[in-house]
Known about the structure:
Elements: E1 6-8, E2 28-32, H1 37-45, E3 49-50, E4 59-61, E5 66-69, H2 78-86, E6 89-93, H3 97-106, H4 117-128, E7 132-139, E8 142-152, E9 155-163, H5 168-182, E10 187-189, H6 195-199, E11 203-205, H7 207-217, E12 230-231
Parallel strand pairs: 1-2, 9-10
Antiparallel strand pairs: 2-4, 3-4, 5-10, 5-11, 6-7, 6-12, 7-8, 8-9
Helix pairs in contact: 3-4
Amino acid sequence: MTIYIAEIDPSSLQFPNPNSAQIDPNGLLAFGGDLSPQRLRQAYRHGIFPWYSQGEPILWWSPNPRGVFIPQQFSPSKSLRKFMRKSSYSVTLNYACHAVIRQCAESRGPEQTWITEAMINAYQKLHDEGDCHSVEVWQDQQLVGGFYGVAVGSIFCGESMFSLADNASKIALWYFCHHFNRHGGQLIDCQMMNPHLASLGASELGRQIFLTQLHQQRDTALSAACYHPQTLVL
């Protein structure tokens, strides 16, 4: 089956309306453009993100429905609480964003990851400009888990997570939900739902509902301390 999608004008930061995205494959909207910080910021402000494999053109997506976490509703299991009490883990924010991005790519291997070198460089630059943030889980001063994503007002757009030790990514999410909620965060976007996210408590929002919330909250300023490098505590 032939699919016709829009090509991004490299001289413009404008994207097609997300509601014009394909039904199958779910959410495919456009191709082309670049991964400049300006274009990435524009994409996330409109509920769009890049996702493609090495050797493909840049593909832009806005799926329906959308996987999300409601930070104030996140509730860790009793077993996870018990595990954390006995563990030697510590959790930080924005201590090692570059390392988290690269580890998210390397932990999947070259045949499984969409996080190409171009993507790594783009999000590391976005971090340097203050828009991409990471949560890190440490054990004996070793980075064993975490995730990264892009801040858009009071919404955090999660990109990828990794775990090299038991429950590390779950604990990163738990601690960040608590921290994000305390600073006024409203929604954590996790893009496309999958069984792992569902097991962590993610729910689904229709694209139009998600976009409405995004448009309402993308210019909401959180407290300056929200993304300062710090140790996260409950």
